[in-house]
Amino acid sequence: MNDLRKLPTDRILVSPSVLACDFSRLGEEIARAEAAGADVIHLDVMDGHFVPNISFGPPVIRSVRKRSGMLFDTHLMISEPARYAQAFAEAGCDHLTFHLECPEPTGEVIDTIRKAGCTVGISLKPATPAEAVFPWLDRIDLVLVMTVEPGFGGQSFMAGQMAKCAAVKREILRRKLHVQLEADGGIDEKTVRTVAAHGVNMVVAGTSVFRHPAGMETAIAKLHAAGPLLDSEL
Ligand code: DX5
Ligand code: ZN
């Protein structure tokens, strides 16, 4: 099993979102991303309830798990993450990020994910303030700041989320925690510089990686080149 806790937090890690790939060839697309230099793979799970879109769930993940040894960075945009955590872990997910805004009690979701054997992330929608995640920081491995409204790929980057990224990063550093700070939505070779300058060290990128005109290897290399930024710059 891959362990997110072993990944560094002082350089840019790239997590291509398969939402932008050709689903009829999902296994090959993930292998293509790995060969092109991806650090982990981002799997966007949507239930048509927490977000107004439906993507895929444990059966699809179980089947691609047979074709890939990469760390599956799973983003659960679902109303009941605790209810399904075990199913995602059994399907082969290494890491589960759930939304702080889901109705299940946060502490219970964290414990359930840990018990299922996965590392834990909390994601914040654009309207949720940085401080909302502070009480949970020492119990999780990753914070995912949404830089679009969750639900769809290919949306425009929200620069207004940068103060939140910097606030979360400052708190992580202040408490000396090993927590990944990830941003998701509208990230490309330009916006990656903005997120890196605000303390983000893991970037999700769908459209800009899977559909880059110069190919995926160039796309990922350009994302990697954005960091690391010095903590003193925050
Ligand atoms: C949005 C998803 C994102 C999305 C990113 O709800 O969480 O992961 O796929 O796609 P791009 O990079 O195209 O904005
Ligand atoms: Zn995502």
Helical region count?
A: 8
**Class based on secondary structure composition and strand pairing:** alpha/beta
The SSE string, one letter per element, is EHEHEHEHEEHEHEHH
Oligomer type: single chain
What is the fold-level CATH name, i.e. the topology? TIM Barrel
As laid out across the biggest beta sheet, the strand order is: 1-8-7-6-5-4-3-2
CATH class: Alpha Beta
Radius of gyration equals 16 Å
Gross morphology is: globular
What can you tell me about this protein's structure?
The protein has 234 residues and is of the alpha/beta class. The protein contains 8 helices and 8 strands. The chain has one domain: Aldolase class I (TIM Barrel, Alpha-Beta Barrel), CATH 3.20.20.70. Strands 1-8-7-6-5-4-3-2 form an 8-stranded parallel beta sheet. The longest helix has 13 residues. Bound molecules: D-xylitol-5-phosphate and zinc ion. D-xylitol-5-phosphate binds next to strand 2, strand 8 and helix 7. Zinc ion binds next to strand 2.
Descriptive terms for the model:
TIM Barrel, binds D-xylitol-5-phosphate, 234 residues, alpha/beta, binds zinc ion, eight-stranded parallel beta sheet
Topology overview:
Elements: E1 13-16, H1 26-35, E2 41-46, H2 58-65, E3 72-77, H3 81-91, E4 95-99, H4 106-115, E5 119-124, E6 142-146, H5 162-174, E7 180-184, H6 191-197, E8 202-205, H7 207-210, H8 216-224
Parallel strand pairs: 1-8, 2-3, 3-4, 4-5, 5-6, 6-7, 7-8
The structure holds D-xylitol-5-phosphate and zinc ion.
Brief summary of the model shown:
By secondary structure, the protein is of the alpha/beta class. The chain contains eight helices and eight strands; from the N terminus they run E-H-E-H-E-H-E-H-E-E-H-E-H-E-H-H. D-xylitol-5-phosphate is lined by residues 17, 19-20, 42, 44, 75, 148, 150-155, 184-187, 204-208.
